[in-house]
Design goal:
single chain, alpha+beta, Nucleotidyltransferase, domain 5, two-stranded antiparallel ribbon, two-stranded parallel sheet, globular, Transposase-MT_Hybrid, Putative mariner transposase
Length: 179
């Protein structure tokens, strides 16, 4: 296996954590920019990410955060996310229109162009690797702490990488970005 290791004769192998099939999981939605995290949302157990949930629990909180930070309503505000059903609903589109948010188009089936997929969630997963939590809430709290501690430089680097990837894909007829 990929996580095998050699040990010296007579030494004990380190304890290995196992992910159980029934282990609790949570879904995160994160809105972030080149300088900061704007909103981190964890979907409660038993709840689905419907367009109503996306608008009320995610986008609405994002708008409140931006208003609290005095973002100018005169400047266009661009947001980017993938093509999940809840993201493309008429309910979501109406909310974006109402609050003058401009969605940046995202090509289908291209996780290589989503900064959250090619950077953020991998970074978070790496930081959480080997951690064990007694509750989902404890995991969410730790994940939020990790996300909020990401430096502005790392966020900017991820966004610069996103622009480079988008340019490359555009210049290469929509081909997948080479990893």
């Amino acid at each position: 296996p990929a996580d095998s290791m050699w040990i010296v004769d007579g030494e004990e192998a380190p304890t290995r954590t196992r992910n159980l099939i029934g282990a609790a999981k949570t879904m995160f939605t994160v809105f972030w920019g080149a300088e900061q995290m704007f909103h981190v949302h964890s979907l409660p157990k038993g709840k689905s990410m419907t367009s109503t949930t996306f608008v009320q629990d995610v986008l609405n909180h994002l708008v409140v955060k931006m208003e609290d930070e005095n973002y100018s309503v005169d400047e266009p505000i661009y947001i980017h996310y993938d093509n999940a059903t809840s993201h493309n609903s008429s309910n979501t589109k109406e909310f974006l229109k109402q609050f003058k948010l401009t969605r940046i188009a995202h090509p289908p089936y291209t996780t290589d162009l989503s900064p959250s997929d090619f950077y953020l969630f991998g970074y978070l997963k790496g930081k959480l690797k080997g951690s064990q939590f007694k509750t989902v809430e404890e995991c969410v709290e730790r994940a939020c702490k990790i996300l909020l501690e990401i430096s502005k430089q790392k966020l900017k680097d991820a966004f610069d990488n996103w622009l480079e990837r988008a340019w490359w894909v555009n210049q290469n007829g929509g081909a997948y970005y080479p990893h």
